[in-house]
Design goal:
Blueprint (H helix, E strand, L loop, with lengths): L4 H18 L1 H9 L9 H21 L3 H15 L4 H15 L3 H14 L2
Helix pairs in contact: 1-4, 3-4, 3-6, 5-6
Length: 118
């Protein structure tokens, strides 16, 4: 059976998201052991993590590396969950575009989500 690149990419993204949710508990355990500086809140830490993963996903998409983009988008999805509705909306739209194979649409929304995070 022959699968198209879009089908394989979509399946890889779905598996990545499922695995991300499966291991979400491990991430929160690790996060509890991190001591943030006095002037840094948990929200700032997650926003920084989300922004970093978005930046790496954007770089990967721009260079055509969809596997690396998928990995960073899965990590960003966990980190962005506590952020603004606008950032989450752009992220969700970027994920839809990425899943549909629309790299330009994904980049547009992921950049908007990154910019919303500050």
């Amino acid at each position: 059976m022959k699968f198209s690149t879009n089908t394989v990419t979509t399946l890889a993204l779905i598996v990545g998201v499922v695995l991300g949710y499966t291991f979400a508990g491990f991430t929160s355990i690790k996060a509890q052991n991190i001591t943030a500086p006095n002037n840094m809140t948990a929200s700032n830490t997650s926003a920084g993590s989300a922004k970093m993963h978005l930046e790496e996903a954007i770089k990967a998409l721009e260079s055509g590396n969809k596997d690396a983009a998928s990995t960073h988008l899965t990590a960003a999805q966990q980190a962005i969950s506590g952020e603004s509705d606008q950032a989450k909306m752009h992220f969700d739209e970027g994920m839809k575009a990425f899943s549909a194979g629309d790299t330009n649409g994904a980049l547009m929304h992921l950049n908007a989500a990154k910019d919303t995070l500050g």
